Amino acid sequence: MKEFYKNKYFLTFLGIIVFFLLWFVIYFIAGQSQAIFPSPLETFQEMFIYLGDPFTYKCIWGSFSRMLIGFGIAAVIGILVGVIVGNFTNLKYVFNPTMIALKAIPTAALTFLFLVLAGLKNAPIYIVVIIVFPIVYEATVAGYSSIDEYVLMSTRVDGATRLKSNLRVRFPLALPTIGLGLISSFALSFKIEIMAEVISGSSSYGLGRAIQNAYINSTNGMVPTFAYSLIAIIVMLLVTLILDIVKKSLKLKA
Q1: What is each CA distance from 234 to 41, 57, 146, 187, in whole angstroms?
Q2: For residues 185 and 133, what is the distance between their CA atoms, to the nearest angstrom?
Q3: N or C: which end of the chain has fewer CB within 10 A?
């Protein structure tokens, strides 16, 4: 019986029940007003209506495709810079102030900056790049730093060039740590993409645009807004579930 209560699937199911109970409690505290906090039942009904609308899937793909572009750019740049710093460790002190600044700048401020520089459509892509780049960079540097010194000494004894050492030894050994950094930042980048779309008022297909339009044009209080937000949450949960499986595989390899 005790093992049953330790089962992760049971605990996840229990967490879902608690979530919806809290939702109902807040709904009743708010005076059962759809304009303030909608009913979970009506929200789900609205969500299933949207799931039957092709517009919803265009929005999901629009957000996901822009996120993939931004994430891909950030991953490539982050790994390249991280590999350079991993090989020349003193460069870490040169890049540290920039990384601290990138992590400290409010996302909303960056959104307005890139709205001016890149326009409505591309601003969310650049936001994802700026947010994800430091995470991937630090994961790459950490992967290189974790390599045993005896392994590095053996490559030097064997006379391997720096390029061969990186291709055959250093990068493969650092890859599990880099992979964990990529996985950790992937789900975050999707949330950042949607938030940037909402703040920027992007006119392109995207969940951020759908949430914003639902809020502006709603005739049913906050129900449409919560319904689209719930769709975004479900997509992120599915992505996170897949990434957790990959993360476990990488941890086993590490």
Answers
A1: 16, 13, 36, 12
A2: 9
A3: N
* C-alpha distances out from residue 115 to 106, 119, 122, Å: 15, 5, 8
Task: Supply 254's token pair.
Answer: 């590490």
Which domains occur in the chain, in start order?
A: 49-253 (1.10.3720.10)
The whole-number mean pLDDT for each consecutive block of 10 residues of the chain, a chain of 254 residues, reads 63 82 84 75 89 90 90 93 88 85 74 64 81 91 83 70 77 85 85 81 78 80 86 85 75 57
3-state percent breakdown (helix, strand, coil) of the chain, nearest 5: 85, 0, 15
Distances (CA, A) of 143 to 31, 77, 171, 200: 52, 16, 8, 35
The end-to-end CA distance of the chain, in Å, is: 34
Four-residue CA torsion sign, 16, 180, 131, 120: negative
Residue 60: CB atoms within 10 Å: 17
Alpha-carbon Rg for the chain, nearest whole angstrom, is 22
From CA 54, how far away is CA 121, in angstroms rounded?
21
